[in-house]
Design brief:
It is a single chain. By secondary structure, the protein is mainly β. It folds into three domains: 119 residues, Macroglobulin (MG2) domain (Immunoglobulin-like, Sandwich); 190 residues, Glucose Permease (Domain IIA), CATH 2.70.70; 70 residues, Immunoglobulin-like, CATH 2.60.40.1220. The protein is built from three helices and 30 strands. Strands 4, 5, 7, 9, 10, 11, 14 and 15 form an eight-stranded antiparallel beta sheet that branches. It binds zinc ion. The site of zinc ion has 6 residues, from loops.
């Protein structure tokens, strides 16, 4: 067993306190969103876009597809991103840049801070952690912040680079009051099939977050103009010199300290750009002797705030708990600890938990037995009924040639049946079981099962 000295790290980031067990490694800190040399959009590109939008708007008016009748107050954005169906992380983003309100080379955002870069004319919302994993799997979607008419779209440009390259994939929506929102950097081929001139409702899918155009990594650049073509900063604040009121339906605080997700890994995760450097090393399956990396990913983690962590055994008993106080405020940060779990088990589904700012985030992983919590290769497999009050259950969706194992919550094997899908379970007591099903082709699946 290797034990790495970690004392010197503790003072750098903040202060962990451990209860029972000590970690093998500890690390993390700021995740610095990479910068490109140039702006999200060059002045040249912006001028070209605006010229094209003017032409399109004129034509759409002639065609009767655009009318400006609404009031400015009708335009109130909802959050322009959402998780794809089935994507279950607590949160998935952070904000790297607001509009630069300062016309000089100095920086200034609406909140009188400097969370921007020189000449930035939009709000940059980046995906985090593992933006390339999310990109690959289409996990974060850009949606219309406000209803309107698509007045232009651009698609087909390369989207997986980390510097300025080619043009961006984007959609431009004009609202009822004549104001316009630009949604840029999206994934090639992901854009809504709706054409220029068609309407979108608030919250409607526009495309997938990616890194097309001048972009250092997957993010949405949202840029807004009023009906006169004046740049808008959707955030109201003391240092917003562009517009007095907020353009958000419900403007969030400048920083909303959030635990985006907690994950387990089989090695130190690598953050980078693009796929070739980013290596999430995500794993939910561990065996005795494996080093288990438990990691916690934040946006707007505030200096002085504390998160409490727990690792629980299959029966719910706490194997270890510790807490950590964040030392410095970052747009994005992460902290990890690695462990050897007890050689003697218990085997089964272990739980990693963390409390932060009133939320509890839970992540399950397997220890010692293969149970594939996230690894369903056949979603049709079901135990009926489940939970069950009867002594006869059926397992549907599995081949007749099979081996079925019942593990109790402590990981102990309590029942083994071969080549059957109708199971008599009068001999097992009430409780939670992990039913592992081995099919004739060697596949292993698991279903949680409760006997009442
Ligand atoms: Zn931007």
């Amino acid at each position: 067993m290797k034990h790495i000295l970690i004392g010197f790290l503790l003072t750098l980031f903040g202060a962990p306190t451990y209860a029972q067990n000590s970690p093998l490694t500890f690390g993390g800190g700021e995740y610095e969103v990479p910068h490109t040399e140039d702006n999200c959009l060059s002045d040249e590109d912006r001028d070209a876009i605006r010229a094209q939008l003017r032409i399109n708007v004129e034509q759409l008016r002639v065609d009767g597809k655009l009318t400006s009748s609404g009031d400015r107050e009708d335009v109130q954005f909802i959050w322009p991103l959402q998780k794809a169906t089935g994507f279950e992380w607590n949160s998935y983003y952070g904000i790297s840049n607001y509009v630069d309100q300062n016309p000089t080379p100095a920086l200034g955002d609406y909140y009188c801070n400097e969370r921007t870069y020189d000449g930035h004319k939009g709000t940059d919302i980046f995906t985090w952690p593992f933006p390339w994993y999310m990109y690959e799997n289409d996990l974060v979607e850009v949606i219309a912040g406000e209803e309107g008419v698509i007045i232009n779209k651009a698609d087909g440009f390369e989207d997986d680079h980390c510097d300025c390259y080619g043009s961006w994939n984007a959609i431009y929506v004009q609202h009822a009051d004549g104001s316009v929102a630009w949604y840029g950097h999206m994934k090639s081929g992901s854009l809504t099939e709706k054409e220029v001139g068609e309407s979108v409702v608030e919250g409607e899918f526009l495309g997938v977050v990616a890194s097309s155009g001048c972009s250092s990594g997957p993010h949405l650049h949202l840029e807004v103009y009023d009906s006169e073509g004046n740049l808008i900063d959707p955030y109201a604040g003391d240092c917003n010199d562009l517009n007095a009121d907020s353009w958000w339906e419900d403007q969030a605080e400048n920083r909303v300290p959030t635990l985006n997700t907690i994950l387990t890994h089989d090695a130190t995760p690598e953050h980078g750009c693009p796929l070739v450097n980013e290596d999430p090393h995500m794993s939910n399956d561990f065996y005795s002797g494996d080093e288990v990396f438990t990691a916690f990913y934040f946006h707007d983690g505030l200096a002085g705030t504390t998160f409490d962590c727990r690792i629980k055994m299959p029966d719910g008993t706490v194997w270890n708990d510790w807490s950590f106080t964040i030392g410095t405020t970052y747009n994005a940060s992460w902290w990890y600890w690695s462990w050897f779990l007890p050689e003697e088990g218990p085997n089964g589904v272990w739980t990693l938990e963390a409390d932060y700012e009133g939320e509890t985030i839970v992540h399950e992983f397997n220890y010692g037995v293969y149970v594939g919590v996230d690894d369903w290769t056949d979603k049709e497999v079901k135990i009926i009924p489940n939970p069950s009050s009867t002594n006869l259950i059926e397992i549907v969706g599995v081949p007749v040639e099979n081996e079925i194992y019942f593990y109790d919550a402590t990981g102990k094997l309590v029942k083994h049946i071969s080549n059957s899908t109708q199971l008599e379970i009068g001999d097992i007591s009430a409780g939670l079981y992990y039913v592992t099903i081995q099919s004739s082709n060697g596949q292993l699946l698991v279903e949680k099962f409760v006997k009442n």
